[in-house]
Protein 1
Amino acid sequence: MIKGIPVSEGYAIGKVLKLEDFSMDSSKKTIKDIDQEIKKFDEAIEKTKEQLSSLYTLAEKKFGVETARIFEAHLLIAEDPEIKGAVHQKIKNESVNLSYALKTVVTGFVDLFEALDDEYLKERATDLMDVFKRILKNALDIEIVDLASINHKVILLAHELTPSETAQIDPNYVLGFATETGGKTSHSAIIARLLGVPALVGAKDIMHTYENGQEIIIDGILGEIIDDFDDEVKALYTKKEKAFDHANKALEKMKGVASQTLDGYHITLAGNIGSSKDLNHIMDYDADGIGLYRTEFLYLDHQTFPTEDEQFNDYKSVLEKMNPKPVVIRTLDIGGDKNLPYLKMVNEMNPFLGKRAIRLSLDEKELFKTQLRALIRASAFGNLKIMFPMIATLSEFLEAKEIVESIQKELDAKHIKYNDFELGIMIEIPSAALMADSLAKHVDFFSIGTNDLIQYTMAADRMNESVGYLYQPFHPAILKLIKMVTDAAKKHHIWTSVCGEMGGDLNAGPILIGLGVTELSMTPTQILKMRRMISTHKYSDLQQIALNVLELESEEQVLFELKKSIHI
Ligand code: PEP
Ligand code: MG
């Protein structure tokens, strides 16, 4: 058995498919049979071309033309006669192995592209490396796993999954997944919850321990991978899986019911989405609105910047479908663990403390304005609230607001209609929480991003398991900051949401309400459970409990107190 951090609930029983990291040996070797080496190379190219063509068709069907284009570009590279000719020459002239010849030729082109001052060609260097690895894997007969082409039921194991890889997962085939790296609030974990796929992260050594095809069980509740089991254990887990599905179905009763406490205090239970495709989850779980639309995935899904109209159509469709329910759309939060391959960013020592989110938007004004224009135009179609991520100072907000107003003037001049909309900020940096009283005078709402607020308050990287013990949502330091924010909001008559993962934690929900939070926004699958949880408590009790725990000295003490009073 291997332990990991459970990040998405549920059980999965299935066969392992490993997404291998590829470290290749391209050292120079002298070969005797030149013809044989050239033949091997040509066959690898043919195989690569076939794979890329079928990937194109598949990606087009599943994810649309935009994603499919990657494979079209790769196909062109694989067919390039110049590369092929140069590799032939090298093998012939120097009697060297194909891996060495191919690597030398490709690296030559890559260096050439990278030295150019043309962003488009620079980007081609990345594609070239990708295709090079694919050809080499084919030549060496290494199995290639393409996430988009998984068409049988598997449990996916990987050292690491990037957010864009995770976004390609089809829950019909990927029954569950586990990675060796990552934390509870890494973006891959968030997507796993959104897809409803049981998942573990931080599961050490899984890539060495398990073989492709081996049957394993993922326990997404306890955070375990069970590998050595008999029929009895398997039957037990099949039963657990059914019971889990059954419990989920029992929640149906909470649909259409008001989100309120026993004594009738209303709060908003909203859903978080990463794409307009997630709207069906919002509907399925009867959300009171959307409390966080993370727009960065719209950018990550594209090969170049999405145009204003592409964005407008996406936002419009979400707003229309949700109308009159509120939709909070967050402007681009790129940086940290999310990078846009087509946006050249300088390498930073500490990306989470670097040019992320609003810092990047205020620096890349055209990018920011395009998004804001699309958002403001889309406001005509529903109940929009625009939110800025990672605000550290009032002046950042004021600068962003000024840009919003300049766009409104621009649209007025062109007689383009838009509706009134609220402007709010995420509170995820301690400076913003500490200055909430001042910020509240200027903004329409606060949304507390606990994922980041915890990491920045405790100085513990949300992605780093070795400091995971410091990632303490219930630490009085965090609760006190939240209280400062809700007090300021109340004083200035604005509303406060929590849209970090804490907002969907059934143990945290009641205490957050007691602290004065008026909206919780979460992974849609949590909404009905939270509604049921809240309906069993009195608001007045929750307020009292919140006051009590604020006096405590450690997370441990807070949890002990909550266990007594909230039955967690
Ligand atoms: C947060 O930090 O809590 C948050 C909601 O933003 P993200 O997880 O996208 O950084
Ligand atoms: Mg954040």
Protein 2
Amino acid sequence: MRILDTAPGAKVLALGHYQPSQVVTNDDLAKTMDTNDEWIQSRVGIKERRVAPDGETLEDMATQAGGKALAASGLSAADIDLVIVATCTLESQIPNASAVVAHRLGIDSPGAFDVNAACSGFCYALAAADAAVRAGSATNVLVIGAEKLSQWLDWTDRSTAVIFADGAGAAVVGPSDTPGIGPVVWGSSGDKSEAIRIPDRHDSLRQEGQTVFRWATTALHPVAKLACERAGVDPSELAAFVPHQANLRIIESIARKLGADNAVVARDIVTAGNTSAASVPLALSRMLERGEVRSGGLALILGFGAGLTYAGQVIEIP
Ligand code: UT7
């Protein structure tokens, strides 16, 4: 077999994001459930989050974020030949979001598949895109993390309703002479699969918060360190650390144990909430927009969540 036209490397060419316009503050939530701003800020770190209205779908948000990343990349729809959407909150399982979003963006007949690895989904999807470009099975890939968690929440359950939110983030991945996406470190702990679940199609998202908290603050910093090691990067060389935005205490614990002393640590959860598969690209795209990180620096991204699953890799910031 002759393998033709494989790229020496792949990199993230551009990012984009979208958040619904409706801001929900902690005080707003306290009007309808037994909670308060002090508890939410001190235990989770969230001040406010975005919630999409009934008429705004996950595909709408994914299309917005994907369109922005595509525009920022300087490529056209015709240049994209693979679309991957990472999500765990589709309203309906069929059709997949990726084919719908690709069609809406005018991308003609790309490969299109969704990834469900919950809050780790974007990092899994990015690894798949990187491999596809390097293997020659795709030239340019649109990778989107999008969630409408609000439609899977029990709005009377204060242990989940105050945490999760809606939004989307996207990246365009294309060929590069030098690799701009490091080897992924991924894995799962299916023995803890009950800790975050939607028990059946009539139910809502349920979480054993403390079980997940303990796991996240003890099992993930070695994954973060290994992702750096596999990329040949010392944590001190990182310009940014962008973990899944689940809880500010978890973010700060992993960052401390990682020892990325020169990195800007993403704290997007404060104003975006926990948007599952959207949180990593949403956070990085917003950090870039605010000028907190610069193009060309190295970022460690790390997803973790239901499954339980995790995945992380070092990338060059576009
Ligand atoms: O994105 C997927 C991955 N998910 C995660 O990484 C989540 C990990 N877990 C967490 O972030 C935290 O465990 C939570 C934020 C979910 C909960 O924080 P916690 O510090 O573990 O609180 P807790 O569940 O131990 O609850 C402490 C108390 C309880 O009251 P009692 O039994 O001590 O009287 C809860 O009923 O806080 C109460 N509580 C609340 N009080 C006010 C729970 N939720 C709320 C609330 N407002 N929203």
